[in-house]
Amino acid sequence: MVQFEISAPGKVILHGEHAVVYGKTALAASLNLRTKLQFRELDSNVIQIECPDVHMSLSIPLDVFLEYFQPSYPFNENTDRLLDQVEHFVTLKKDFSDTYSGARQQKLSLQALLYLLVYIAYEEQIQIKSFSIRLYTELTVGAGLGSSASFAVCLAACFLHWARLLKGDVHDTFDEDDLEKISKYALNCERIMHGSPSGIDNSVCTYGGMIEFRRGEPVNVLPNMPSMKILLVNTEVSRNTKDLVERVTRLREIYPAVIDSIFDSIDAVSRTALQVLGEIHDAQTTNDAALLDSRYKKLFSLIHMNQGLLSTLDVSHSKLDIICSVARNYSFAGKLTGAGGGGYAYILLLPDTESELITHLSELLEKERFSVRTTSLGCNGVTIERSVKIQD
């Protein structure tokens, strides 16, 4: 009998929002607010699932589950078929639940879990046994912080790790081959949540650190990037990503030359920021305080520029402007992250920013009715948090 814990980070878009839709460069970083998964094998003939963040708790009889899915093999050549079968199973089997209402987020979470369980069991050639799984997250669900990818990465890592343990391969880290598999499995799973995912979120949540992305090209996981302290600020203003993307599209239809030049400028900001981030890492490595300070100032300028360009695209919001103004008043820099129109912003802090100043900034923002968290970017990716325990 085994049990273990796994975690995966969220993500923040640093630069490149909206322009990335038109083939420009985007930079994203792992966010050290994590989804956590607890797994243990059971003696009883049941699969127990708990996802408190979506108010879901259910028990599926193992024999019913195996009877439904075993005849599906082989399906690896057509994962759409498996997706359809999982959706059908979830629709039919509503009597396993203590708290399953079929609400959209519950349904998507359950489909993602069952899809990855069956898919990875087949790929890794293991027999599914009884188990209990519990997932919970520090991320706001559905807020553009990579919560669904973090969830999928945790599940993919869990079932891959379990498969290895069942084969007698005891380990406490994931190697490069494991990470590649986890990212691939999670990307397939994200199709349940998003239809046509870009590959950004699952890559960041798997590998951690920072990534560079351009549409139609493979995601580039960046080595030697710094970890950075931020304030993550929730405007508490809901936004619709699709509507905001369409707003930019309409603007481009009216002013194509103007908007394309803005996209080119955002691309240049992203590429320059990438270079500066590498220089910050080098300055941290060599303890060059003067170089570190000058490069952070350059990065602050680039963040100001990017926010200004996004405002020109009409995807900012008065609440986001307040956050960025507070940051600037204290010689920091803030910008929206994600689609804009509300949602989240981040304020980049200096590495040696005193806790008293962070508290003061947080209180100022909270007086404006924002919620604020101090966290970091560029953290570790998916991780086995607790060594496997073999129980008698």
TrEMBL record:
GO MF annotations, alphabetized: ATP binding; mevalonate kinase activity
Keywords: ATP-binding, Cytoplasm, Kinase, Lipid biosynthesis, Lipid metabolism, Magnesium, Nucleotide-binding, Steroid biosynthesis, Steroid metabolism, Sterol biosynthesis, Sterol metabolism, Transferase
GO biological process: cholesterol biosynthetic process; isopentenyl diphosphate biosynthetic process, mevalonate pathway
Enzyme Commission number: 2.7.1.36
Cellular location(s): Cytoplasm
Major site of localization recorded for this protein: cytoplasm
InterPro entries to which the protein is assigned, alphabetical: GHMP_kinase_C_dom (IPR013750), GHMP_kinase_C_sf (IPR036554), GHMP_kinase_N_dom (IPR006204), Mev_gal_kin (IPR006205), Ribosomal_Su5_D2-typ_SF (IPR020568), Ribsml_uS5_D2-typ_fold_subgr (IPR014721)
Enzyme class, spelled out: transferase
Catalytic activity of the protein: (R)-mevalonate + ATP = (R)-5-phosphomevalonate + ADP + H(+)
Gene3D superfamilies, per database record: 3.30.230.10, GHMP kinase, C-terminal domain (3.30.70.890)
Domain spans labelled GHMP kinase N-terminal: 121-209
Gene Ontology annotations for the cellular component aspect, listed alphabetically: cytosol
Domain GHMP kinase C-terminal: 290-360
Pathway: Isoprenoid biosynthesis; isopentenyl diphosphate biosynthesis via mevalonate pathway; isopentenyl diphosphate from (R)-mevalonate: step 1/3
Region forming the signal peptide: none
Pfam families to which the protein is assigned, alphabetical: GHMP_kinases_C (PF08544), GHMP_kinases_N (PF00288)
PANTHER family from the UniProt entry: MEVALONATE KINASE
Family to which this protein belongs: Belongs to the GHMP kinase family. Mevalonate kinase subfamily.
Protein name, as recorded: Mevalonate kinase
Species this chain originates from: Lasius niger (Black garden ant)
Lineage: Eukaryota, Metazoa, Ecdysozoa, Arthropoda, Hexapoda
